[in-house]
Amino acid sequence: MASHRATFFRGLKKLSTRDKIQFSKPRGDFKYPVESLTVAEPDDLGALAPSSENAPALVTGYPYSYIGSAPKRFIVGARPVSSQTVQASNVE
Fold it and tell me: 31 phi and psi, to 5 degrees?
């Protein structure tokens, strides 16, 4: 998923690898532990390569304070957890 650093993904700059991200879908809310926080060049697609896991990656421009088109990308990698613990109603 990608979004602009000054809108929906503004809060990503505050994440750490101790945090979780949450997605809401029609079948429930899903939490994913943050596994990595990476600053990459725009043409470095390694962090976005498809994987066999259902692991989300969030991408936005970097640095956050940059005015104009950001020269780098901030990538948040998360890992899936077992389906028994992923339902937000069962997790806390």
Answer: -110, 140
pLDDT in tens, 11-28: 999 999 989 998 888 988
Instruction: Look up tokens 């390694």; give the residue.
Output: 46
Give the CA-trace dihedral at 32, 36, 37, 40, to 10 degrees. Answer: -120
Task: Write down the CATH number for the domain with range 10-90.
Answer: 2.40.260.10
Least-confidence region, from 5-9, 11-15, 29-33, 80-84: 80-84
Domain boundaries along the sequence of the chain? 10-90
C-alpha span between 86 and 46 (Å, rounded): 26
Element (H, E) at 90: none
Can you tell me the distance from the alpha carbon of 21 to that of 92, in angstroms, rounded to the nearest whole number?
13
